[in-house]
# Entry
Amino acid sequence: MTLDLRLPLGLLFAVLGLLLALYGLVSDAAIYQVSSGVNVNLWTGAAMFVFGALMLIGVKLGSRRAD
# Structure
């Protein structure tokens, strides 16, 4: 069995991305006036979550290929 860094990194990015996106959803819209009204927390969290999910999918597909 080899060390696959996709699993812990995928979990890390998915969990932190989810937390950041949830914070972006529940936070006050007034704090985003500095960034021209763009909810940076929501979009960055969503991107982190997608990246983490892709890494976890890669782990699943990689383990299936190794069997």
Observations:
- The chain has a mean pLDDT of 91.
